Amino acid sequence: MVAISQRAQDIGSGVEAFVREKIVPYEQDPRRDHHGAPTEELVAELRDKARAAGLMTPHILADGSHLTQVETAYVLIRSGLSPLGPLALNTCAPDEGNMYLLGHVGNDMLKRRFLDPLKTGEARSAFFMTEPADWGGAGSDPSMMKTTCHKDGDDWVVNGRKVLITGAQGARVGIVMARSTEADSEGGACMFLVDLPDEAIRIDHVPNTIDNSMPGGHASITIDNLRVPANQMLGKAGEGFKYAQVRLSPARLSHCMRWLGACIRAQEIASAYACERHAFGKPLVDHEGVGFMLAQNQIDICQAELMIYWCAAVLDTGDLGTTQSSMAKVAVSEALMRIADNCVQVMGGTGVTDQTIVEQVFREIRAFRIYDGPTEVHKWSLAKKIKKAHRSAQEQKLAH
């Protein structure tokens, strides 16, 4: 286990107490949209409480610097103890990843205009990258991107389609990725900051999905002649994929952190149920079939936590950590799925009702196994690196 700084422990303790005492009581709050996601009114009320507690955006310090990734892990795990915790504390996706990206790549103007309202929790954001399969666009393979951009005077003009864009409905800040058709950027990707809503960015459909913890759902989008001033490009033309990696490795690890917190809480609920519920003359936990599931959950929680901290420590060295974050995403998401499933099973019929958050955690973790790259894509990427390393080793042997 890596060492946790005192400042992270202090912030994390405050976050945990806040979530357990102030946010958990809102889990049965009826202010939800048609899909079951928290309404903007509910999110605003939760964030007011976080501000009053001095805990808004706890992973970003007053001077604008971020906690280290190890420190962030300690805090974000505790923010996830309720599905509403990350929303209240402004540690949720996609905002947390977008703030990280802007903080590391954005210039002073972009930070003032787009990052500042995100840090204060006054605005939500969306990251426009994934494209529809029926269009042949980018999904897990971003090189397939079909949304294009070209220069027109002092502006760039963007056209294309996007899909499964989390939080687009109701967002005020957008980060849009498009492939440049300009010769000097050699067809590379570009990344733009835009104010939302914008008439050129049309929400076509917000489907119902298995998860519903994130306001705004996962929208399908048409971008029709979106004009963006050149000074709202993030970094340089053609370097969008590089900036995407700056965002994606930490962001997929942050998902692991938050959902580990949720599974820790689900384990607490299932354990309490098993200890208090009796069947066949003794508490459920005394039946090996039940007790062993909870024991395995405890093992998986410990292993997931170790994986998260290991990957966070790699990122803190300045390494992009793409290999490590891929391994963490696979290992943690699969472990959390086992934990959530066991919790439902231990609780029986109660586990599939909305009487506790266990049922929601199960649904959210099932979705988590897909977004930010499904398990199979990460394993395929890792297998390619194994093959490349083998070839390199063979070539070195031949050279000697």
What's the structural blueprint in terms of helices and strands?
Elements lengths: L5 H18 L16 H13 L16 H11 L5 H5 L5 H11 L2 H12 L5 E4 L19 E5 L2 E12 L6 E8 L8 E7 L5 E5 L12 E12 L10 H37 L1 E2 L2 E2 L4 H28 L6 H26 L10 H11 L6 H25 L1
Parallel strand pairs: 1-4, 2-4
Antiparallel strand pairs: 2-3, 3-7, 4-5, 6-7, 8-9
Helix pairs in contact: 1-3, 3-7, 5-6, 5-7, 7-8, 7-9, 7-10, 8-9, 9-10, 9-11
Structural summary, described in words:
The protein is an alpha+beta fold and 400 residues long. The longest helix is centred in the middle third of the chain and has 37 residues. α5 packs antiparallel against α6, α8 runs antiparallel to α9 and α9 runs antiparallel to α10. The protein has three domains: 87 residues, Butyryl-Coa Dehydrogenase, subunit A, domain 1 (Orthogonal Bundle); 111 residues, Butyryl-CoA Dehydrogenase, subunit A, domain 2 (Beta Barrel); 152 residues, Butyryl-CoA Dehydrogenase, subunit A, domain 3 (Up-down Bundle). The protein contains eleven helices and nine strands. The protein is 49% helix and 14% strand. The strands form two sheets. Strands 1, 2, 3, 4, 5, 6 and 7 form a seven-stranded mixed β-sheet that branches. A two-stranded antiparallel ribbon has the order 8-9.
